[in-house]
Amino acid sequence: MKLLKRYLYYRRRIIAASVIFAAVFAASFRLYRLPIGAVGYPALLCALAAAVLIALDLRRAAKDHKIYDLAVKNAEDTSVSLPEPRSLEAEDLNELAAALRGEMKELRDLSDSKYRDTVDYYTVWVHQIKTPIASMRLSLENEDTPLSRKLYAELMRIESYVEMVLAYLRLDSVSSDYVFKEYRLDGIIKQAVKKFASEFIGKKIALEYSGTEKTAVTDEKWLQFVIEQILSNSLKYTREGSVKIYMSEPDTLCIEDTGIGIAPEDLPRVFEKGYTGCNGRLDKRASGLGLYLCRQICKNLGIDISIASEIGKGTAVSLTLEQYDLTAE
Q1: What are the pLDDT digits (tens) for 111-150?
Q2: Which of 77, 125, 185, 264 lies at a C-alpha separation of 20 to 30 Å from 321?
Q3: Does 62 reside within a domain?
Q4: Which of 84, 117, 134 is at the close of a domain?
C-alpha cells in the first residue's frame, strides 16, 4: 500500500493529464450530440487499457524498487547491479550511483590501508617497548624495598596500558585471533592476579580469593585481559579494604572491591567509549577505554558483563560465562 501511494504520487502528472484529455474528448463528443454509448464504450475500453498498463508499470516499479533497496543496503557491494534505466533521468542516476560506488571503494581501500599500517606500526611499537619494560622488571625484581615495589607496580600498569593500546587497535579485526578451548578459570585468574601482586602488597589491599573450581570454554588471552582491566580499576580506585574474587552464581564470576564506587548517574554510561565519569575527572590519567574494551571483548567471547556500585562502598563487576552455548575448538 505504501509503495502504491508513492507510485501514484510520482505518476500524478501523467494521471492528471490523462483525465484532462479524457474530459476534453468527452466534452467534444457531447457538443457534437453523439450518443452516450459512442462516448462511454471507448472511454471504458481506454480505462481498462490504462488499468492494465498501470498494473504492469506498478509491477515493474515494485521490482525496480526492491533492486534499488537492496543496492542501498549493500552500497559497497558492486556485484549488486542496478535496474536497467527506462528514462533519461534513471540513466543519469545510474551513472551517478556507479561514480559514487567507485569513490566509496577507493575511500574504503584507502581507509583499510591506513588502518593496517597503523595496526602494524603499533604492533611493532608494542613489541619494541616490551624490551625495556622486561629489562626494568628484571632490575626491580632483584630489589625488595618500598620504592622498588612501588616502581614495579607502576611498571606493571605501564605494561597494562601498552596491552590496552594493542587490544584497542585490534578490536575490529581480532575475530580470527580467538581460540576457544576449555580452560580452568583459576589458572586464568591467577595469571591476572600475579601481575598486580606487588600493587596489592604496596597499597596494603587484601585479596580474598580461594579458587573457583570452575572450567569455561573461552579464549584464555582475551578473558585474562578483561580480568586484568577489572583488577586494574579496582586497585586504582580502592584506597583501603579488599578485592574479592568469587563465583556469585554457578556461572557468574564476580570481582568486588571496597573502593570509592561509581556515581549512579555514571553507571549507565561506564561502558561507553571514552566516558570517564566523575572518577575519571578526578583521576586525569583515566582514558575511558578500559571498560569499553572489556564490553566489546566480552561480546566476542559470549560473556555478559555488568556492574553494580555504590558511592563510598565499592563496585562489583559480574561476568556471566555461560550466556551463549560455545564449544571448544
Answers
A1: 888 878 887 887 788 878 888 888 888 888 778 788 887 8
A2: 264
A3: yes
A4: 84
Answer whether residue 156 is part of any domain: no
Number of residues that this document lists for the chain: 329
Q: How many other β-carbons are positioned within 10 Å of the β-carbon of residue 37?
A: 8
Residues 22 and 20: their CA atoms lie apart, in Å, by 5
321 pLDDT above the threshold of 90: no
pLDDT value for 27: 77
Question: Taking CA 240 as the corner, what is the angle to CA 317 and CA 206, rounded to the nearest 5 degrees?
Answer: 70
Among residues 57, 84, 111, the one where a domain terminates is: 84
* CB of 119 closer than 8 Å to CB of 173: yes
Please say whether the beta carbons of 242 and 207 come within 8 A: yes
Q: What is the DSSP string of 4-56?
A: HHHHHHHTHHHHHHHHHHHHHHHHHHHHTT--HHHHHHHHHHHHHHHHHHHHH
3-state SS of 179-208? Answer: CCEEEEHHHHHHHHHHHCHHHHHHHCCEEE
Q: Which domain holds residue 35?
A: 2-84
Question: What is the pLDDT, as a whole number, of residue 284?
Answer: 47
CATH number of residue 230's parent domain: 3.30.565.10
Is 80 exceeded by the pLDDT of residue 234? yes
Whether the pTM exceeds 0.90: the reply is no
Asked if residue 265 belongs to a domain, the reply is: yes
Segment 267-316, tens digit of pLDDT: 888 898 877 766 554 554 556 788 888 999 998 888 999 999 999 899 99
Q: Which three cell numbers stand for residue 25?
A: 474528448
Distance CA 329, CA 326 (A): 9
